[in-house]
Amino acid sequence: MTHSEIVDSAVDHQGALERARNSFAAVFGNGRLTLEQLRHNLDEMMLEPELSADVSVDEIVVGGVGALRVAAGPAIDDNVLVWFHGGGYVMGSPYGYRHAAAALSRALGSAVILPDYRLAPEHPFPAALEDAAAVVDALIAEYGPGHTAVGGDSAGGGLTVAVLVDARNRGATLPAVAVAVSPLADFTASGESVATNRDTDPVITERSLGMLAATYLRGHDHDHPLASPVFADLTGLPPILLLASDSEILLDDAVRIHHAVQSGGGTSTLSVYPDTCHAWTLFTDFLPRARDGVAEIADFFRKVLP
């Protein structure tokens, strides 16, 4: 690549990153929007790219929980990925995550299940965890643990880790592999990156973490291990991939999970991406780093799944 091409590529990336950050900023507006408006805005942002003609989306019920099954391309294998959407446990939906799921399905060659887990404040903790666990239990019973993967981004990333801990605690069968992108896993906001990255994260702030905690936990301790799994015992979990941006305030959530899994004898891989933003893998239609992240997820899963 010539010097001119390198410069042009860097300019293109910065433009794409700015677009991603502006998309998030448009969701939150002036900071005074109602929850109904925020939910609408997040889904609208997620649905901006059109689905390809070879993507199928089917409404299903898994473990008593409504969900969408998304499959991209003609060759879908015998594996399944459960993907928990983000949105701080108060926003987000399978409907809005169809494009993100299609990108994952295409990279994996597997169907992706998007559970419609209950949201706060209508359904505070532990409703989301109960729904997530029911879905994972049902899919493991249907596909087998060796063919089942679990993942999510932001709150969905924290929920992924909580589901694994809950399953281990219950003596339930665990999936083969997991991934958490920009996991929201500490409602105490005690990670060092909350302070060090407060000026570089345009998406999440310490104040917004406090508001989410108050809405979701409703009197439960902020360090409850199934709400803030950085405080959980993380031994005995399946291999997990953790992706985080070096500029987001949740970086340390991923770092601490990684170290806890490894110190407990488990298998964990941590990838910290420069020059990107929180939950950047959502923007595969225009952000190169997003496509890189999805490709890394697929590569990690292929090492474990048949």
TrEMBL record:
Belongs to the 'GDXG' lipolytic enzyme family. Keywords: Hydrolase, Plasmid. SUPFAM superfamilies: alpha/beta-Hydrolases. Residues 81-281 form the Alpha/beta hydrolase fold-3 domain. The keyword Hydrolase applies. Pfam families: Abhydrolase_3 (PF07859). GO terms for molecular function: hydrolase activity. InterPro entries: AB_hydrolase_3 (IPR013094), AB_hydrolase_fold (IPR029058), GDXG_lipolytic_enzyme (IPR050300), Lipase_GDXG_HIS_AS (IPR002168). This is Alpha/beta hydrolase. The lineage of its organism: Bacteria, Bacillati, Actinomycetota, Actinomycetes, Mycobacteriales.
